[in-house]
Amino acid sequence: MVPEPHADERDETLVAGMEPVAEAAADPQFLQRRNREMFQALIHTFQGLLPSDKGAQLTALAEQLLLGIDDNCAACQFTRDQLLLPPPRDPRRNRFLLRLVVGKVSPLFSGPKACMPRALIEGMDSYLKKAFGPMIYEELNAEADQLLYRLNCDDDQEMWRRIRETPDWARFVDTIFLRILFRFENFAQGKKTFMTILDGTMQELSHFNVTDDHFFAIFEALFASLYDQLGSEEQWLRWDFHFGDGTSKRINTILEQGLARYIKRRNARILGSGRALPPDKRGPTGPRK
To answer: Is 2 inside any structural domain?
Structure first.
């Protein structure tokens, strides 16, 4: 199940000022009853200031106005109830795992730096289905469905920002991507399987050949953020705690094989800026031997 964000991780603007309306939330008729009481008190005040015949006319008019107030309150309550309902699901959107993955690789087929056709979307879906098999694919798809339904966000950048700002959700998504990453634990075989499946789908749809350059670009888009996270000893220990001792070392070994170009470019940028490369302290035991 997708975890709820902890209380201290929720947007405070969502809970600020909730106390005054707690009674209204518990009793849907509270506001309607309060409005009638306030209106009747106001009419009673005016009646004391008017002659008796005018007071009687005001009483008759007030009864008519109260009916209108009741109708408006009922309409407001209906609108409020509708707003509190979750957004309806689009039955045409059912590839939720793919949505998370495509959110990572979309710059490769859209935007100024696109280097592949949109058939990459279907190629990624073909890989996920064949690599995991129908049962695990549906399990991961259901998990992604829960998260995306909670997020209710169409913009990829906003979606990933909100995920990263909520530690429980970030860990939940990391779990999904780590399950994908571990398909490359035997890196040469994992890479071959990935390229074979992807190339077959993209050849069929767009007559596009997937090369090593394309593979490493996709791998970087999917997993570079995991490598950067492992630069933190705290994150290294956290993944070992959540997923078992030795998990972070396994992750790092796979990533160093698939991200060699990314790591080389990153180091070149550091040296090009006039800075020295920092000591390699990935892991909890200090510099590796």
So the answer is: no
Token pair 């106001």: residue: 42
Give the pair of three-digit tokens for residue 26: 């518990």
CA distance 19 to 97: 38
Residues 6 or more apart whose Cβ sits within 8 Å of residue 270: 276, 277, 278
Residue 154 lies in a domain: yes
Find the domain containing 221 and state its range. 96-272
Residues 128 and 251 in one domain: yes
Residue of 129 and 267 predicted with greater confidence: 129
Greater confidence (6 vs 123) lies with 123
Q: What is the pTM of this model?
A: 0.66
Are residue 105 and residue 236 in the same domain, yes or no?
yes
Higher confidence at residue 117 or residue 54? 117
Euclidean distance between CA atoms 169 and 175, whole angstroms: 10
For residue 149, pLDDT beyond 70 = yes
Q: Is 22 a domain residue?
A: no
Count of structural domains within the chain: 2
Q: How many whole angstroms separate alpha carbon 63 and alpha carbon 157?
A: 54
- Tell me how far apart the alpha carbons of residues 98 and 138 are, in angstroms, rounded to a whole number: 11
